[in-house]
User: What shape does this take?
Amino acid sequence: MNDRPTPPDAELFPASFLRLLSLVPAAVPRLHAGVADGRRAVRGEGGRFLFRGHRSYRPGDDLSRVDWNVAARLGRIVVRQLDAERDVKTEVWLDGSASMGTGGARIVGVRLAALSVAIAVAADGRVRLGCLREGRAQTLIDVRDRSRMHAVLELLARDAPRSRADMAKALPRVLDGMDRRSRFLLISDLLTRTDPGVLHALAGRGVRGALLHVRIPEVVRPEVRADTTYIDAETGERRTVRLDEAAAARVAERAARHADLWARHARGVGLRHLPFAPGEPDEAWLRRLILEVP
Amino acid sequence: MTFVWPLALVGLVALPILWLLARRSGRPQEVVMPSLLFLAAELDVSPAGRRRLDPHTWLAMAAAALLALAAAGLRSFGEERTRVVRAIVEGGAISSVPSWQANVATALAGLRAQLEPADRLDVVVWPPAGADLAQPRPPFRALEALARAGEADARWILCWAHPAHVPADVRVVALAPSGLGTTWRSTGVVAVGVESPEAAATQDGPARVHATVHHAGPQPATVRLVLERSAGDVVATSADILLAARDARGVTVELPAGLERARLVLQHIAVPEGADVPDLLPADDAVLLVRGLADVYVSPALSPADRELVLAALDASGRMRVVDDPASARCWLGYGAAAALAWARGQAGRMALALQPAGDEPPLAVPGDAAPRALVDARTRDLAVTRTAAAFSHAALGAARAGTFLVGWGSDAAAYPLLSDHDGVLQLAAPLHAGRPRLGSTPFFALLIDNWLRAGLGPDVGGGWVAEGVLDLRTTEARGQADGFEFAALDTPLPRVRAAGTSWTWPLSIAAAACLALLWSLPWLRMRRKGTGRRPAPLRRTS
Assistant: This one.
């Protein structure tokens, strides 16, 4: 009897990507080996090295954790509390608007999401994968171990981009409910008029992470074209524009300014801004996600 | 501007097709974009701007138009050149009708009024002035053939009446006297026969002349026939004959013995409309009766064999007498057209038979504009020879005098019996035998000689008499048109004729080729321009 799960969408997740995904658990410690101390956050009891504090001895506590030095000095028995060595919760939010379904953005988005989840799980962390759409933040799945990666891929493949994201409403809902010191990854093309100042809800909460900016060449560097009617994938708005070289350069400049604006605000709250574009190798994405995402 | 091949202008249909194709292909392409966020500041292209055609379309349309114009043979107009108008005026017997000349002059004046000073009017009167009036009117087809002969920008025929069918390339002015109404008359002798005493019921009585008198007028008329030995010397008179309108009656006149030549004259006795109404056609009022054999001069240049053959044929006809004096002969027989024509020109009303080319004499040339015509001579048809016919140009006809028959040849390789009659049409019979025929090569030579002499000298009316001047019935019946004088055709303006100007075919072709070359090189030029232009900046990382 063959109980192997059905392979996910072959276009979104080809065999080469699945092989790369299977290598993530082995790649994460190796890549982390070169990372300076203090770059990883861990949380929770039960560890062996990360000291949190003392508490009074309760029957049943491990005697090996009794701090005899304190008992000798203060005359009462306390035990050492140690944090478990595991990552904090990682929040991976994917822009689910229709704009993420065009120009190869969906492939970039879902693969980045899958890789981010895999990396977080490989680091022995907890992951919440969610989708931002129509002003709502919908949790797709909570992942605690690698066994659910297949479900992650299926959900990502099933959740087709549609409608609008309405970041101005969706992002505050995500940020307000986020744990302190958690990791936050937002995968989006950032094609929104939402004020990037919305990110400042994370200020002072010890949240780290990155904006994984999917930059679609058709948008940020349009081709020179004769009269062309452009149709907005989200709103259906139509504009007939003649994109000569000057106009294309103006559009590219506006896109660059828009990306800079989001990058500045992200830096202000401890997030990194990482641009990704369709066509880049998956291995490069994996390496950047491991090395550059805090 | 004018076009040599205007049908090629159909190629201009390509212009709207190209335009439509360009419009169709120039419709803005629709592209789904993730967002119009960064395009919002760009101005929409106006519909008028979208309709603007690109250089490719303009070049293609220009090339198509130039090619179509070049294929159509565009030419600029030259200056107007001299127009040549050819007018054929019916002459002959009809010219004796009162007021005919005046009508002709009026018509010609109307025609000249349309002409510019530089234009030329060629007037040809046929049969020419001086021709024997006692000949039938020329058929319309003869005038038509004359009108079409030679180069002309407009062709006119000024004749008695409109034919049943007027050809498209010829305009006809009918000159029948106007206002004839009921006051005109046309009476004439249309047939003559001589009854010999031997054939008459009374064996010892005088010979008699039976004539048929035809009256074409709308009112009755009383006439009689008189027989004159010479002008005014009346030897016999018929009874008065009352002719009803459009009636024909037989009249008998006694023919005294001993006469060798007499003139039968129709006299009008009573004219109801008044004495001042003359006969419309005097030419048909008199017939010359000649008794005896016709004098034929046979050229001594004939070879003995040919001479013997000719004399045998003349003897077989029983109507000819060979004389030695060419001046008194009515017919000349010999070799060579030149001698025959010279003889005929000097003596109108005579007949020349040129049996063969003389020495190296060139053949008579058949004009290139000769129009085919059916051979109508029944006697020739009876010979059961293959026939062809051609109507000769006026220049060729000028060689033949009215009343002169000319038998000749068409080429060295194949001789043709050639028959010219007074209506201006030369009739050609095909060679009787292959190769250059000899006089005796046809068993019908004697019959041919007799037929030609009969046609040339006049019909044998019996009793050894020959009648000259019996007009065809259609000539006597000539009468006015229902509408009278017909000058309507003169109202048609003459065509403007311009000399051919400069041809634009080559310049247009070169321009079209230049357009096509530019069309072909336009993408290449654009590629070069793009190669030197700014390249879009690579995607840059902003943090």
